[in-house]
């Protein structure tokens, strides 16, 4: 890994057997974790990371991810994530990620949107104090921008789920990857033997906490599946999945 | 990382904020994952890993872990895991792990026991075909050996838990780290603000699968908490936790 060019950051990974899911590839929640990780490391490396924001009474919060994969890394495969910032303004930052396999071939992309929140008010903070330190890149990200995700008003299926201790992150709210777990758990293990997640869009709308009980609502349409997580009827997260038959 | 000495294997990690738990340190399930990972990488590096065993119709299965920590790595901390094999025979292998902080100070140890299973019968396989390739180390592991873990016959509390898609690993059974989740989830987030897991012992006794419903039984004693996971009354996993007031 050579991260001298400040406009990009790359991490090389090796996928061990024990990390893989039932289909012997990287679990989607772990890939989301890696996307968050490479983004965090890039921000840290140019001093707009956790430490500096903590000093400013702020924290980075992931608002949206859209991920599109042609295939997923499998057991004993090397893969890499490269990230760069497409835009940053006072209110949010668009950061993209390329997923590359061990032979250097692109196998997917992610688009993410991050906001900085004020730790006191838990509301959006003004990022102008540090946004000039960000080196943007004009590298292209060929996948479509984040769509508007609909509410699920007439679900085909609703599961009730309660978040527990291991779901909680350092901000004392539910870890983003545990929302992804809750969404994928709408289906069974055999469904994923025949259906690959080709594109996954998720928007984090409201924080949930330890012990919170949520409804996970699923609505299948012709081209995709929409999922909404609600607490007391209020949306905390919406997602859309486009599956591909395999 | 310099892994020229075949009798040891080391991986250096950086703990990003997004990986941390509610107490802003590495989650125990993730530390267990790292213990599995460094063990896997060491085995791969001396060609007794997933690939070779797969060719022999075998797979490594983790049977026991005992972990003792004086402290856990926190946000933005570097830490390393070093592993070595203490013993190997036809039936099992004892592998130890040292956890080192960014300043080179030992902060914990783990003892693990691994068995190879025959993928057809799912029973223990004879490891004599490859055990001579293992370079053992006489490095010491100062924590006590794995104890015998008792059944929990008269629990103080029982929670029912159902394993779902995201809990399943490449062997199509429940991922070891998800047992750790289920065990820790017996307590709430505030309990862990005041109680650190000083020592954690776990024995994996029977495989569980997608959709399996288990009872998680907890019995507190003066010095520790015993947990047993049972499916249809049969033990699949037992654990013991010694907490320390913090």
Mean pLDDT of chain A: 95
Distance between the termini of chain A: 33 Å
- The helix count of chain A comes to 4
Beta-strand percent range of chain A: 35-45%
Low-confidence stretches of chain A: none
Detailed description of the structure:
The structure is a homodimer of 246-residue chains. With 246 residues, the first copy, chain A, is of the alpha+beta class. The first copy, chain A, has helices at residues 28-45, 50-55, 176-184, 191-194; strands spanning 9-14, 58-69, 78-88, 93-101, 106-118, 157-162, 195-204, 213-220, 225-231, 234-245. Chain A has a ten-stranded antiparallel sheet with strand order 1-3-4-5-2-7-10-9-8-6. The A-B interface holds A 14, 16-22, 24, 27, 29, 33, 36-37, 40-41, 44, 49-51, 75-76, 164-166, 168-170, 172, 175-176, 180-181, 184-185, 187-189, 192, 210-211 and B 14, 16-22, 24, 27, 29, 33, 36-37, 40-41, 44, 49-51, 75-76, 164-166, 168-170, 172, 175-176, 180-181, 184-185, 187-189, 192, 210-211.
